[in-house]
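Schema walkthrough. Field components (list of strings):
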Amino acid sequence: MYSRAVQRILMFAVALLSWGAVMAQDVMPVHVMNVQPMDQVLIPAHLNPGLAIDLDNPASYLYPEWSNEYVHKFDNAVLPDTVVISMKGYCMPTDSTRITDKYGYRPRRGRAHLGLDVKVKIGDTIRAAFDGKVRISRYERRGYGHYLVIRHPNGLETVYGHLSKKLVNENDIVHAGDPIALGGNTGRSTGSHLHFETRILGNAINPALMFDFPNQKAATDYYVYQKNTREVYYKVKSGDTLSKIAIKNETSVANLCKLNGISKNTVLRIGQTLRVN
Ligand SMILES: [Zn+2]
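Field assembly_structure (string):
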């Protein structure tokens, strides 16, 4: 009985995925094609018609705990091999169409910019990207400035940084499009802008793969996140060498060199970021 129900849900997900792939074809490479063993596909609650969405405990199938403490640290959580992220019900966080800094890792600078910078003026309305619950509302002088983290039923957490004012509190339930903050220039920021991040269990994903700011629409209907191809970063500590880092991260020195555009003789700086997968 149970396995038949599961089978049906899987078939439903496959149908949705194929449809999503067709819809997304002219927008971006079709990640959906890479989905392999079906039993590893994690179906978000809102793709499963039998499950109600619990905004009080969003995406509890991914996040076993609700904590306001850390932005990117998730103890007791297991990242599934594949997570299907639905854009259903999204709202663009700002109506600005101007990207001022792209997402990406800058090997030369040993720095990872794990969000997208969108030009906003101080006081511009910033809106919740999806329904969800505010997990963090905080101020970080040297980093995000005033910032918010919202957890959504589709498994994503969105981060909004450099705000001038926050309009919601931790543990508030919000709906897609609700004004949550005003744009600003707080924290480590030159010129007012929104620093926008999309993450799964702390793992950053390029927001441009889901949110097309220049055209003010979703870049896809479904984004398929895969553990084995995700980007992983490592901060160099005192005493580290390339071979030690390679062993710690289950990779090779050659791969580290390739990912970071360095040679095996490159001198590492403490605090520098390296991409390790
Ligand atoms: Zn930024």
